[in-house]
Design a protein that fits this description.
By secondary structure, the chain is of the alpha+beta class. It has one domain (6-105): 2-Layer Sandwich (HIT family, subunit A), CATH 3.30.428. The protein has helices at 6-12, 59-75; strands at residues 19-22, 26-30, 40-44, 80-84, 100-105. The protein has a five-stranded antiparallel beta sheet with strand order 1-2-3-5-4, covered by helices on one side. The longest helix has 17 residues, at 59-75. The radius of gyration is 14 Å and the shape is globular.
Length: 116
Amino acid sequence: MPEDCIFCKFVSGKIKVDFIYESDNFFAFADANPKVKGHTLIIPKKHFVNSMDFPDSLASELFEAIKAVAKIRLKEGFEGFNLVQNNFEAAGQKVMHTHFHILPRKKGDGFRLNGL
C-alpha cells in the first residue's frame, strides 16, 4: 500500500473513518465533501489506482457492495442513485485509489451530473 494514499490509511486504521458497510474486500463510508446528502464512497481494501488495474475477480463482490450500500441509502428515503467512477486525473479522479461514488437522489432535487 502506498504510504501517501489516504484510502490506504483508512484501510490500515491509521486514519479513523466510520464505515457504513464492510465486506471481505470492500468498505463504504460517507464522503468528507458530499455533493449530495448521503454521498457515499465504496473502495477496495487493496490498493488499485483505477479500474484499469482493478481485477475482474473482484467485480461480483464490488456489485454486491454497490447494491448493499444503495439499499441502505434507499431505506433512508432516497428514490434513486447515481453510480460514478472517475479514472485518471483528466476524468476528475482526485484520489488515486479506485473508488466508486454513490450519489443518493430524490426526484426534483436539482442536482446535475456535469458532462453527461
